[in-house]
Amino acid sequence: MSRLPLTRLFVSLSLLAGTAFAADPVTVAYQTGIDPTKVAQADGAYEKATGSKINWRKFESGSEVIAAIASGDVAIGNLGSSPLAAAASRGLPIQTFLIADEIGDAEALVVRNGSHIAKPQDLIGKKVAVPFVSTTHYSLLAALKHWKVDASKVKILNLRPSEIAAARQRGDIDAAYVWDPVLGKAKASGKVLVSSAQVAKWGAPTYDVWIVRNDFAAKNPDFLRKFSKVSLDAIARYRANPQGFIADSANLAKISRLTGAKAEDVQAGLKGNNFLLQKEQIAQLQQPFVQAVGKTAEFLKAQGKVEALQPDYRPYVTNRFVKTAN
């Protein structure tokens, strides 16, 4: 899929603010992040609960999800908190209505064997690949700031996960900050310098979330309530017995099919993130997540990734659909 410049995407999306979507079928953009809801997706649970036909479209990065929403083809999308913060800062007509996960070890900066990178300062002058305006991009910049490594002295390349995999195989890059399935492959021939779990402890947490266009939300609240319930039920099943869920080969196979990750990487990915139950989601979406989005946006502005900030990010976050999911 071709990628438009971000400014054009945001202008296009703003112009679509009054566009209405049909409740059936609904096109939903998802990514390859590993989480329990992929089992429900594979089982057709969302279609059964909502009574709607859902066209699932897989994307490689949050910027591509934004592009799809800007095109008018997608009403609901899965993306990271960093592209969300960038989109909200530009006033896009969207809301976050569900948290897929709090990202931990499932995203990491991996250096290639033979790259001669043993410590953070060794990244200076090296080629580090990351999808721009993604959670991994935000985590990379936050890590460099923590290490007091000047980001301008690191050759940071904007590559999608599939492009990272190819570049790594050719030896064109020295390191990459990425998620599965590429993360698992990178670990097989490299070492983790830092993961997003550690970066979160340094004060820069990241999340995977579900967003919806405001016009679709206004016309289809029941669809979003049922969509949220299916997701929360899948998370609750995992949280009730994580080891049993991970040991179930059928669950692993379904997630592998949707993400392209190997079974062992699916297991690691599930262990590497924190999945929030309904009460936790209600509390998080009420205020803490709003603050996290604001802090992310402030960081992106300081890095020159967004031009201006919103005075309040509350309009871009809602917990009303998870509240009524039962």
Give the helix tally: 17
- Compute the CA-based radius of gyration: 19 Å
DSSP E strands, number: 11
Q: Characterize the largest beta sheet: strand count, sense, and whether it forms a barrel.
A: 6 strands, mixed
Residue fraction in strands: 15-25%
Distance between the termini: 38 Å
CATH class of the largest domain: Alpha Beta
| Overall domain count | 2
Structure overview:
This protein has about 325 residues and is α/β, with parallel strands linked by helices. The protein has two domains: about 25-100 and about 205-325, Periplasmic binding protein-like II (D-Maltodextrin-Binding Protein, domain 2); about 105-200, D-Maltodextrin-Binding Protein, domain 2, CATH 3.40.190. Helix content is about 50%, strand content about 20%. It contains 17 helices and eleven strands. It has helices at about 5-15, 35-45, 45-50, 60-70, 80-90, 135-145, 160-170, 180-190, 195-200, 215-220, 220-240, 240-245, 250-260, 265-270, 280-285, 290-300, 320-325; strands spanning about 25-30, 55-60, 75-80, 95-105, 105-110, 125-130, 155-160, 175-180, 190-195, 205-215, 275. The protein has a six-stranded mixed β-sheet, sandwiched between helices. Strands 7-6-8-5-9 form a five-stranded mixed β-sheet, with helices on both faces. Helix 1 (about 5-15) packs parallel to helix 4, helix 2 packs across helix 13 (about 250-260) and helix 5 packs across helix 16 (about 290-300). The longest helix is centred in the last third of the chain and has 20 residues, at about 220-240. Residues about 1-20 have low confidence and may be disordered.
